[in-house]
């Protein structure tokens, strides 16, 4: 019975060590990629240049909604891409959507 308990502890320790090492590895990989969060909202729509220097432009026709939650703002598109913003950027996002897009897109 004691051996079974020790074996379960050993398996647990190995599993947790693997999870920690995996998390550190993923973090190091992302840090080396120099991921920059560069998103611009203007008359062209939403321009994202944050992934490997690839410039993606989502025109206003592609935006299906701007959901304002308790802690985040989520911009939904009709593609499998969406954008998250911190709630601190609420006024900036709302002003940009009202100025360039359609304020009917805003869901509070």
Query: How would you spell out the order of helices and strands?
Result: HEEEEEEHE
Query: Tally the helices: what do you get?
Result: 2
Order of strands across the widest beta sheet?
A: 6-5-4-7
Structural class: alpha+beta
Write the layout of secondary structure elements.
Elements (H helix, E strand, L loop, with lengths): L1 H31 L6 E4 L2 E7 L2 E5 L4 E6 L3 E6 L4 E5 L3 H11 L5 E2 L1
Parallel strand pairs: 4-7
Antiparallel strand pairs: 1-2, 2-3, 4-5, 5-6
Structure in words:
The protein has 108 residues and is α+β, with helices and mostly antiparallel strands. It has helices spanning 2-32, 90-100; strands spanning 39-42, 45-51, 54-58, 63-68, 72-77, 82-86, 106-107. It has a four-stranded mixed sheet, with helices on one face. The longest helix is centred in the N-terminal third of the chain and has 31 residues, at 2-32. The protein is elongated, with a radius of gyration of 21 Å. It starts with a helix and ends with a strand.
